[in-house]
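Renewal narrative, Specific Aim 1. Our central claim is that a sequence can be written position by position from structural information alone. The example that follows is taken directly from our test logs and has not been curated for this report. It begins with the structure tokens describing the chain, in the order in which they were read.
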């Protein structure tokens, strides 16, 4: 998501999602994955109103370890069975992996930031495979 302002748009959407979560007093967590690394950027906690300090440093890097990121999301979601668990995947769809839907997610939304001249539609395909809500950003 390094091109055409994709990362900036994704950060804006993330900020909006966190603001909505704060208004509902929801709990949130954030996993970031790029290259071959999956990082728990925001451990599970109640959403806060101040998010700029940890959203601003989020970067993008070549490659997307989607399967590993989804596996980590599954582990986090499985620990919180008493709440409705939502998974938001913000992606440009530039991954060759097609992991299974995380079983611990009650609701899944895939937000697609792909803006390539020749779109691959992988995020849309993943949303269909997962029976998830698909949103084009």
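The sequence written for that structure reads:
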């Amino acid at each position: 998501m390094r091109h055409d302002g994709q990362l900036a748009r994704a950060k804006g959407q993330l900020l909006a999602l966190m603001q909505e979560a704060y208004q509902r007093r929801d709990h949130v967590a954030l996993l970031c994955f790029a290259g071959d690394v999956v990082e728990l950027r925001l451990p599970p906690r109640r959403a806060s109103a101040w998010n700029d300090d940890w959203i601003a440093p989020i970067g993008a890097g070549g490659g997307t370890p989607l399967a590993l990121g989804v596996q980590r999301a599954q582990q986090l979601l499985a620990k919180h069975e008493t709440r409705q668990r939502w998974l938001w995947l913000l992606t440009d769809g530039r991954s060759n992996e097609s992991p299974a839907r995380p079983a611990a997610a009650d609701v899944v939304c895939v937000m697609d930031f792909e803006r390539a001249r020749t779109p691959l539609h992988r995020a849309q395909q993943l949303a269909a495979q997962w029976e998830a809500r698909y949103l084009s950003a």
